[in-house]
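Task: complex structure prediction.
Instruction: return structure tokens for all chains below.
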Amino acid sequence: MGAHFADRLLSAIEDKGAPACVGFDPQLEQLPPELLGRAGPADAASDDAAVRALEVFGRGVIEVIAPYVPAIKINIAFFEPYQEAGIGAYRRLVAHARATGLIVIGDIKRADIGHSATRYADGHLGREDSADAVTVNAYFGIDGVRPFIAASGSGEHGVFVLVQTSNPSAATVQDVVMNGGGSFVEHVAAMVQSWAVDEAPVGESGYSCIGAVVSPRDTDSTRRIRALMPSCLFLVPGFGAQGRTADEVATCFRSDGTGALVTASRSIIYTQSRTPSRDWKAGVDEACRELVAQIRRVVHAG
Amino acid sequence: MGAHFADRLLSAIEDKGAPACVGFDPQLEQLPPELLGRAGPADAASDDAAVRALEVFGRGVIEVIAPYVPAIKINIAFFEPYQEAGIGAYRRLVAHARATGLIVIGDIKRADIGHSATRYADGHLGREDSADAVTVNAYFGIDGVRPFIAASGSGEHGVFVLVQTSNPSAATVQDVVMNGGGSFVEHVAAMVQSWAVDEAPVGESGYSCIGAVVSPRDTDSTRRIRALMPSCLFLVPGFGAQGRTADEVATCFRSDGTGALVTASRSIIYTQSRTPSRDWKAGVDEACRELVAQIRRVVHAG
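Output:
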């Protein structure tokens, strides 16, 4: 058995000196043109050709970022349009990223009733070739999460439960006010904290293998969510393209400077669409180093 | 462009004389032994062998049930443990079921923020080889659903949004009481109704291509949810193995006897594990005919 997920992640964050994660959400139209063949995206019209381009791009991104950041989040949604070929590429990239020493979060956002959730867990966690951690949806309650805990190998793998998301319509579901005050998202946060300590192994660091996806909406609500979930590591999307400010992100950390892993996706991997003449790997390299510097400033300011 | 999804489904229900759907949730351990080879599940230890067995079983189930029911719901969770081989089998079974004339619901329960949800929709709806409808999760609000509406081909395809689920812990999320009374699930129900009429095409029948997954918890709450969602077809899981009563299921229908498609899964496809000596197709045949008869009684009693 390996070390607990939270301990592994915190140790990797310390090694790299920043709680930074690159999100890999690859879209064919945004790939460096040289990966697509002379005709551009049209050359990659078949699923196999498209997947080959995504995979070459992914391996390049992984190699560039591995020295700078502790973790990568790979979003399976961007592979599913290519059906079985896409799933194969997702798996190979997960394995390649792990082989380079990155901690890999499989952004799969699955959940179902128990016996179906078990099958999702079988597919995506605790296998030789699966990610170190996955994201799951909270709508079913603990039944949709427990099979992933069971597949976590006594906490060696992590499970990030969606708590607060970054999209515009999230508030229509997540910010509704409950009887007795407090928002629905605070109810979910308190529930996930109880799962984190009652249902799942806690590491030496005091953090559970159950974490939470929390995209800060404003500093006040984020501070309340942080206080409700002392045992959960936060996976914080939306630094960069989704426009979260440094202050908002800083409130995702506990006062000891631990407790969050901050993710930027499009702003790191699509630098070439902003500066087409430049070598794409040099662009990713620079953007990744800048991300690390920004996140260090956030942690130290927090 | 084809007919609207709701009109197609209602017409298929009328043709078969019952709003019945078979859920296909295949587990290797429950397959008829003759499909697994002489050594049983151990013979199907490789992903490829396992997937071959699931696929033979699936084609058999489809052929047996197609004369009796209008629809099949295929749960992708049961294919994902087998990675790319599993996704290939899921796709081929979806296509085979459609070719036999069944309406196919891809039970994928996906959702993400907009640009990621778009990729899930690209993978699972509106393709030549994809399902007639899919299930999606409501946690992101309309942003997680709109890309599926966009992929619906002006309503030719359907999108069932998870509203009330059947699992034991569902209540911890879905039954929490809101400020001003009413449960969270009623809030979601009202929201999905507004999407169904404001965001999505409504068919000649008056039903939208946006439907809802509603597993009745008791007759009172189900009656309230039905009243909140007059424009939504309900996909009702849990008839049979999940133990919903006829009374509870009857409240999912509108007073005109339309408005719901009732699904049974394990009680139909796993008859052989209850009567091992019998030909498995004969068992599925009998269970499917009994399902249709039971659901007819429910509709007429409602």
